[in-house]
Amino acid sequence: MEKLPFIAVEGPIGIGKTSLAKAISQQFQFHLLKEIVDENPFLGKFYKNIEEWSFQTEMFFLCNRYKQLEDINRDYLQHQLPVVSDYHIFKNIIFAKRNLQEQEYRKYLQIYNILTSDMPQPSLVIYLHASLETLLQRIAKRGREFEKNMSEEYLQQLSADYELFMEQFEQTHPNIPVLQFNGDQLDFVKNKQDLHDIFQKLDQTLQKGVFSNGTSQ
């Protein structure tokens, strides 16, 4: 069986990206890349005052994700060693567009385009989505202190942003397969059969062979 070099698991906050990426890593023997979240010193302040702390928060995430992907590209992807990640750097655009003022967003986008001009694209994206009710339940269950100040409206808007972005992504990146799973219908953390079904769908895609591993546009 041929293995894809880079699988990215994406979706809104609380959907279970890290849990699924860990499971895929163990099942398929992929290197696991986890995004830095708790280490962001601005995140707690951000959820209390988004307008005041959004630029610092988004810049921290951008720089750290850039460094992580640089390291992964050098140590794994260039050697065709498979990687599964619980994010991809394109998520920065989703959050920045939602959170930054227009002038800040223009500056941010310039920096983003420079940093990601030669970043590896995912060979396959797994997109997880769910209703607001499901997301809120899962966020409450994991109990991150800084997420207690997150508003339902913000989470709902973010989910809509993801839906629009992924729709556009599939249109502009027809050579990158996107596997979508509904978190309202599947609970791959509690239900082993649900996780098996995801593995089976992923395995079927992997069996089709290695997809090109290009660079970001």
Automatic annotation (TrEMBL):
Deoxynucleoside kinase domain segment(s): 7-204
Gene3D superfamilies to which the protein is assigned, alphabetical: P-loop containing nucleotide triphosphate hydrolases
ATP-binding as UniProt keyword: yes
Gene Ontology molecular functions: ATP binding; deoxynucleoside kinase activity
A GO CC annotation given for this chain: cytoplasm
UniProt keywords, alphabetically: ATP-binding, Kinase, Nucleotide-binding, Transferase
Chain positions recorded as ATP binding sites: 11-19, 138-142, 186-188
Keyword Transmembrane helix in annotation: no
InterPro entries noted in UniProt: DCK/DGK, Deoxyribonucleoside_kinase, DNK_dom, P-loop_NTPase
CDD domains for this protein: dNK
PANTHER family: DEOXYGUANOSINE KINASE, DEOXYNUCLEOSIDE KINASE
Family listed: Belongs to the DCK/DGK family.
Name assigned to this protein: Deoxynucleoside kinase
Lineage of the organism: Bacteria, Bacillati, Bacillota, Bacilli, Bacillales
